[in-house]
């Protein structure tokens, strides 16, 4: 479904009053494929380049080099009608559930926005579809009348997910979509995503720094470090046993569930 072919990217030259700063390399020759119905985990520490790669796959940032092929179509070379169709099949759920929505819109308006842009539904059909989407993500039909500030973070992320699946897309990029939630809400959202993946035959690109979250939902995992793809595997256990420094960093970043097992640093006053 998705082929990322030899993607490299760097930020343009910047001028300083004394000198010209050279381009900053962000990604270096990244290649991988994502099959239909698969959840592929893209892991990496902060600054590794994973969010930039996610933006390139979404068509938000043109790469310096390489191709993004969605069902064989080059995302950055197709004509406008084809790009419009691809945008329907390629959706995203961002990390910050609050900034991803218009605070003045109701939940029903937020979820219905893609339907307004792509579908020609009657008022009755539109209302029924939004009701179905709310129920699919574990909310009530009457929640459609509420505004973002009336929801918890977990509930609002469910609304973002409902918006993402409204058009029955083929691929959803989940960009740190559970990292801002507490552990209970994380597990609930991950369970919901797994259920929707099965029900709707979805494919996911799960961008995260959390190995535990990735191992909960992903079929395959890969690790990006300093702009390079350094690890790929579909065997989670072998990842936990990997000696690669980038993988070890991710493992070391796992916070123990019980507070007594966490490292405590003493500060002198």
Question: Would you give an account of this structure?
Answer:
- With 269 residues, this protein is of the alpha/beta class.
- It has a single domain (2-252), classed as Rossmann fold, CATH 3.40.50.
- It has 9 helices and 12 strands.
- The strands form 3 sheets. It has a 6-stranded mixed β-sheet with strand order 8-9-10-5-11-12, with helices on both faces. It has a 4-stranded antiparallel β-sheet with strand order 4-1-6-7, covered by helices on one side. Strands 2-3 form a two-stranded antiparallel ribbon.
- Helix 3 (107-118) runs parallel beside helix 5.
- The longest helix has 18 residues, at 183-200.
- Residues 259-269 have low confidence and may be disordered.
CATH topology: Rossmann fold
Alpha carbon gap, first and last residue: 57 Å
Task: Point out poorly predicted stretches.
Answer: 259-269
* CATH class descriptor: Alpha Beta
Largest sheet: 6 strands, mixed
Organism: Paenibacillus nuruki
GO molecular function, one term: ATP binding
InterPro entries: AAA+_ATPase, ABC_transp_ATP-bind, ABC_transporter-like_ATP-bd, ABC_transporter-like_CS, Nickel_NikE, P-loop_NTPase
Protein name: Sulfate/thiosulfate import ATP-binding protein
